[in-house]
Amino acid sequence: MMECSDEDSRPQKIHDEDPLSVDSPETAHQISKDSWFQVGFVLTTGINSAYVLGYSGTIMVPLGWIFGVVGLIAATAISLYANTLIANLHEFGGRRHIRYRDLAGYIYGRKAYSLTWGLQYVNLFMINTGFIILAGSALKAVYVLFRDDQALKLPYCIVIAGFVCALFAICIPHLSALRIWLGFSTFFSLVYIIIAFVLSLQDGIKAPARDYGIPGTTSSKIFTTIGAAANLVFAFNTGMLPEIQATVRKPVVDNMLKALYFQFTVGVLPMYLVTFVGYWAYGSSTSSYLLNNVTGPVWVKAMANISAFLQTVIALHIFASPMYEYLDTKYGIKGSALSYRNLSFRIAVRGGYLAINTLVSALLPFLGDFMSLTGAISTFPLTFILANHMYLVAKKNKLSSLQKLWHWLNVCFFGCMSVAAAVAALRLISVDSKAYHVFADI
């Protein structure tokens, strides 16, 4: 098989091309094969992943009712707006930009290409780390339901989760190949969301008055509030929209916008329900994994946790796919997914990548802190700062002065938020690192 040369993989400016023709860069993965409906389910899989079980504790508890509700609604609207900006640039300049770094490189140049790739890699690595922590926590929760001997500790569960994620990654060659697995993902999501919702509702009806005050000292409240703001943007954004858009059928922009509207209407409703009901039921004592709070039949809670584990395995594959695409394209991994060369490559490379993820997950299993840090150092810059500035640069001759001012205000505001959130997240990790040793059994 032919390998892609370095020249093929570099972002190139092509302003002199015919604007009516749209070229697609070379990739080892399938593009333009999926309906907008399938892509919409890819996006909603991210929103309603098992991370949703943590938002009552990591967003609502630090923000309270007023700022929590307003913040979630505002984050939904702002995230939809920012994602539509990126979606509209997918065919900018007569070329399909199927990777976020390609779009940034085309608009700004080589340095921006490398910086964007670095930010995106950090974003996806941190998200995948969180997914493995989630999967391990779900396994540990199932074990504790039936045995309370503390023999199976969280680090062991994380290792098991990482191994299962690696097996799935080896079996599914690319993002479009998920297909029926997206149906399973949706089913598993509905199982743990409905169970968490119903059990929380029952607990809330029977429970005495709850405390909804924001816990902590004045200084700690400031940091946790900023960290919760980072979690808000983390909840709605993938940081890999061009890579997902690459899979959608033509007309690419119109179909992607349909998928986004699906994500931010129908897709957000389950997340809203479980987040608000979870906080209503348990108040400021809500944990960062809602299924640890609920009471009910053991078999029902076990089913919810098993569903969370299985859905996490599928969701992780989505967020790891840009790294897989890069490596498969670089080394010419095409053709039959079951050929010896391709299969052995996936076993070695994808298995090795997820082994590193698993090690970091077991070392520092502080899920809420990772969500805050990911939102601060990568989701803010990728989704809001870059989105607004790239649109400003790309459309500068077509924008009014008021529109330009609006985009600059977004760039400056989210730039400040990114710095503040990063400081807050690092402080949280520092505090938790003192409270827990490495490979902690949380």
TrEMBL record:
GO cellular component assignments: endomembrane system
Keywords: Amino-acid transport, Auxin signaling pathway, Membrane, Symport, Transmembrane, Transmembrane helix, Transport
Membrane topology: Multi-pass membrane protein
One Pfam assignment: Aa_trans
Domain of life: Eukaryota
Keyword Transport in annotation: yes
GO process annotations (BP): amino acid transport; auxin-activated signaling pathway
Domain (Amino acid transporter transmembrane) ranges: 33-426
Compartmental location: Endomembrane system
Ranges annotated as spanning the membrane: 35-54, 61-82, 121-142, 154-175, 181-201, 259-282, 302-327, 347-367, 373-393, 405-429
Residue ranges of the region described as Disordered: 1-25
UniProt GO MF annotations: symporter activity
Record's compositionally biased regions (Basic and acidic residues): 7-18
Role played: Carrier protein involved in proton-driven auxin influx. Mediates the formation of auxin gradient from developing leaves (site of auxin biosynthesis) to tips by contributing to the loading of auxin in vascular tissues and facilitating acropetal (base to tip) auxin transport within inner tissues of the root apex, and basipetal (tip to base) auxin transport within outer tissues of the root apex. May be involved in lateral roots and nodules formation.
Similarity annotation: Belongs to the amino acid/polyamine transporter 2 family. Amino acid/auxin permease (AAAP) (TC 2.A.18.1) subfamily.
Protein name, entry field: Amino acid transporter transmembrane domain-containing protein
UniProt organism field: Carya illinoinensis
